[in-house]
Design a protein that fits this description.
Blueprint: H1 5-21, H2 32-35, H3 48-65, H4 76-83, H5 92-106
Helix pairs in contact: 1-3, 1-5, 4-5
């Protein structure tokens, strides 16, 4: 097991918490079609917060639960900065949590 798993699991919970605090957490899943997008961040079918909730968090939890290799790089913060460029204060907490996630992934472990 990768030594970073516990810290990453905690960080995923903090990302989820921030999505909920901001009101960016959906109770209803997008359609199967929307979730099956092949575009990066599903930009053609999902809002960024939906991608975080329904794709990113789900996949990362699967990686941790199944003891799979972690990604080698993460650039989620860069995408968040583009998406929330017009809402810097509102997205500050989420961007901070995503930055910590990116750092955990790029740390050597």
């Amino acid at each position: 097991m990768d030594a970073r798993f516990a810290a990453i699991a905690e960080q995923l919970l903090l990302i989820e918490r921030e999505l909920r605090v901001q009101g960016w957490w959906d109770d209803v899943s997008p359609s199967a079609e929307a979730l099956s997008s092949v575009e990066p961040f599903s930009v053609d079918t999902l809002d960024f917060h939906q991608w975080l909730q329904w794709i990113f968090l789900v996949r990362m939890k699967q990686i941790l639960e199944q003891d799979l290799p972690l990604p080698k790089v993460s650039g989620i913060l860069e995408m968040a900065e583009m998406v929330y460029a017009e809402r810097p204060q509102e997205s500050l907490g989420l961007r901070a949590e995503l930055k910590k996630f990116d750092q955990l992934i790029t740390d050597a472990g």
